[in-house]
Structures are given as C-alpha cells and as structure tokens.
Amino acid sequence: MTATQQDKVFQVPRRLQGIQPTLIRQIFERALPGSINFGIGEPDLPTPQFMREEAARVTLEEQNGYTSHAGLLSLREKIAAQYPHLNLDANQVCVTVGSQEAMTAAFLSIVEEGDEVLVPNPAFPAYENCVHISGGKTVFYRLPAEKDFAFDIEEFKSKITSKTKIAVVISPSNPTGKIFTKEDFQAIAEVLKDTGIYLISDEIYADLYFTKNAPHSASEFYERTIIVSGLSKSLSMTGWRVGWIASSQTDVVKAALTLHGFMTVCTSTISQKAALLGWTDEAERAKADAREIYKRRGEFLIDILQKELGLRATAPEGAFYTMVDVRRIGDDAEVAEKFLQNRVITVPGIAFGSEAKGFLRVSFCNPEDRIEEGVRRMKEALSK
Ligand SMILES: Cc1ncc(COP(=O)(O)O)c(C=O)c1O
C-alpha cells in the first residue's frame, strides 16, 4: 500500500451520507432510569408460550441448518395463503429478517437513481432513509392533521409526476393509528391505473385493528402492490425477526430475493420453524387477545389524557399509537423534552414529518397502571 492510500480518510459512500440515527432513537438514549416508555413501538405483551416452546423444541431436537434463501417452503405457503385474493404461489413470497428487511429490499429492488417515491407525512422515518439509500428522492404527501391524519386523495394525486416510481401506504399507520378505508384504496388504484407506479404496502400492523373488520390490503385493489409484513407486532415477536415480502409482481420478489440472499442468506431457521405456528387457532386467539388488550388501553389512555391534562388525542383505529395534540401547551419537541426530564418518554411529532408538528406520538405498550403513572408524571412536568 502506498503512503497516499494509507493516508486516505474513510469517506462514507454517497448512498449512506446524511443518514442519522432517528430522533426516536436519540430520545431513548437520553431517557432517565425508571422512565415510563410511551415512546416505544414494540409490544410489551409476552411472546405466546406455544411459540416459545416450539422454538425450544426445534432448537433441542432438530438440526437447524440454512433454509433456502427464500425461506421454508411450508412457511411461504402459509404466507401466500394469507392473501387469497392474490392467488400467490410460494415463489412470490420471500421470508425476510423482519419486515424492515423486506421494506429495504423492496426499495432497492425497484428504485433507480433519481426516481421519486411518494411517502406519507407523517410516517415511520425508515421509508425516507430507505429511499435515500436506494438513490431515489422522497416526495411527501400530507395526511392532513386537520383531518385527524386521514388519507386525502387530492393531496396524493397532486404529488405524482412522470418520475414517480413508487408510492408508500401504511395501514394501520405508525405513527397515527389510522386505517386506510376501502374507498381510499379504490381511489389510489384509480389514480395509479396504467401509470406503472408500484405501491409498497406496509402491513406490519394489519392484525392489530380495533375496528369491527380487519383492515383492507392495498393489494386487493391494485395489482402492482408489494406487501411488506411480518409477525413482530401481532405476536410480540420483534426479536425473532420474521417478516416477508409478498406480491403478484414476481420479478420484484425475485430481485428482492437475490439481494436478501447476499445480505442475510436466510432468516433464522429456528424462528422460521416456530413461525409455522403463526396461523394456527392458538395464534389467532393470541392475536385477538392482543387486539382486545391494546384497544382497552388505547381508550383508557385517551380518556385519562383528556381528563387529567385536557389534551385531545386521535382515536386509534389500529396499531398501538395515538397522536396527542399539544399545540395548546407549546412546541412538541419542548413538551417531549419536559416529559423526558420527568421520566416519561414520548416522541415529538416532528420525528415523523412536518405534518405532525404540534403533536406527540404516544404508544400504549404499557398496562393501565403504568399509563396512569405516566400521565401523572406528565401533569407534574407541566406544573413545574
Ligand atoms: C411501520 C413499521 N414498519 C416496519 C417496522 C419494522 O418491523 P419489523 O422489522 O420488526 O417487522 C416497524 C417497526 O417498528 C414499523 O413501525
């Protein structure tokens, strides 16, 4: 090696430049010991016992070598069957390391340098970063705060250009807890018809809904939909890293699979084998129980925020988040900071986009007594 080569300073490649840990992560890192965590987007309910027992059995009794890159055939068949309207076969599914990998792989498989990607504002911050990594340009469409963050087709339509390659939808939403209606998806399908634009549908919260019926999937209405989903939230399996990409767009799944093979080889075989129980009656009961628990907690939280603090929060339709309107009290980042100093973690809306400025995302991954104590600390912080 020559001296000049040795002296060269490491330069992060352009695709990774400007990517910072999210504001959410930065807040967690500054949390005081004993804080009540309304900031987290992770189920606090235990992973169902039958899943744990199956993983333990598989570990002890079976040889767990690699699976095929795409994942166990039997697991892919179960995932495919979850979308009967698409009539998928197993090669239209790839099991990934959580839905996060499915999402990143989807962007990297479709986006070319300079392509535009429509992303909701507010939204999960990962989308914007994935678009950046894949060389695209994020164009935000507003989910208007004045409409309680409901989808607005005219706003969506106004952002489409000849460069639009992908649009992202998420239902139920992180951070708003809102669900896209059938009419929303029909309107999107109508607008996207014959444009060639892909729709990435983040369905990681699809099983956590508080409405009478399960939310619709965008894929019921628009063919060029790429579903990213997984078991992390519905079965409290965040650390098990089981997700998937599923789509009738076989070429996109194939491209994602190639990338997945080189990034990970395959998802943990033990997790995949346990995940085979994710569609049993027992699993469906666990999902239903989780829905019931989060629904009850969400209602409790909204009620107590109103009673104790006079703050209005959006009524969640799914996931485990509500957006609390703090505009009356002050700037969202400052209010979140006050709460943080009094040992309550919340996330300022601005972490999810400009449209959520003036709101806090508050999650209800805590039992009622912790929620009560958290709101008490919030009240105390505001009176200081
Ligand atoms: C909207 C959304 N999508 C995807 C993910 C990634 O989840 P996982 O990789 O555990 O499936 C999360 C996690 O918080 C999320 O909130």
Task: Jot down its keywords.
Aspartate Aminotransferase, domain 1; Aspartate Aminotransferase, domain 2; 2 domains; three-stranded antiparallel sheet; 13 helices; 14% strand
What is the top-level CATH class of the largest domain?
Answer: Alpha Beta
Shape: globular
Query: Helical proportion?
Result: 25-40%
Describe the main β-sheet briefly: 7 strands, mixed
CATH topology of the largest domain: Aspartate Aminotransferase, domain 2
Question: How many DSSP H or I helices?
Answer: 13
**Strand line-up in the sheet with most strands:** 2-8-7-6-5-3-4
From N to C, what is the helix and strand string? HHEHHEHEHEHEHEEEHHHEHEEEH
How many E strands?
12
Cofactors and ligands: pyridoxal-5'-phosphate
What is the architecture of the largest domain at the second tier of CATH? 3-Layer(aba) Sandwich
Distance between the termini: 61 Å
Give the CATH superfamily of the largest domain. Answer: Type I PLP-dependent aspartate aminotransferase-like (Major domain)
